[in-house]
């Protein structure tokens, strides 16, 4: 029995005001697989995320998600409803700096965050533990937290509504050298426990090595995705 991929991209070309368009010759993400892709800059990563979520359509080629081409989404209401199936980890995602980490993690679950209801607080604590967040951090405002804890907050929020696909867009941007591996382990733990198909776009080799079951590098001119070359010197 053939298992249909969660994400399939074939012959994709998308122009986005760069020197050359984003090209993806072929990419397939199977259920439960964790794929890391390097070779895509920050603007290109945003374009790729929009292609996968159906926020934009390719100029050429086809993107299929959950067995359906993104071009088949008929209207805005249908597209908005489909977003619940995606969990997105991105430094572009908004966290409220003046609110506590507890309040920020509660927001996908309730609009009542002052105070956070006890039942929601229990769910938030479970999400925080899952993402490897020290409970001591929960009562602190987001503004005082370091980049790693903020990234873990994005991860916890991304899985709060139990998505079917996790997408990470340069999640370790702003990290200090060497911090990527521990966050990669957190992503692997969360995605593995939930059997989440996961697509990561990252230039952080330590993060990708810890998080992914398969690593690929994009060759921009052709759109081919191949295993990254091993470094001879470190």
Plain-language structure description:
With 234 residues, this protein is an alpha/beta fold. The protein has a single domain, classed as Rossmann fold, CATH 3.40.50. Helices cover 31% and strands 22% of the residues. It has seven helices and ten strands. It has a six-stranded mixed sheet, with helices on both faces. It has a four-stranded antiparallel sheet with strand order 2-1-4-5, with helices on one face. α4 (118-130) packs across α5 (147-159), α5 (147-159) runs parallel beside α6 (180-194) and α6 (180-194) runs parallel beside α7. It is globular and about 50 Å long.
Q: Helix amount, in percent? A: 25-40%
Order of helices and strands: EEEHEEHEHHHEHEHEE
Rg (CA only)? 18 Å
- Sequence stretches where pLDDT stays below 50 over 5 or more residues: none
Shape: globular
Distance between the termini: 43 Å
Total DSSP helices: 7
- Can you tell me the number of structural domains? 1
Query: Mind describing the biggest β-sheet?
Result: 6 strands, mixed
Strand order of the largest sheet: 6-7-8-3-9-10
CATH architecture: 3-Layer(aba) Sandwich
β content, as a range?
15-25%
- Which structural class do you get from the secondary structure elements? alpha/beta
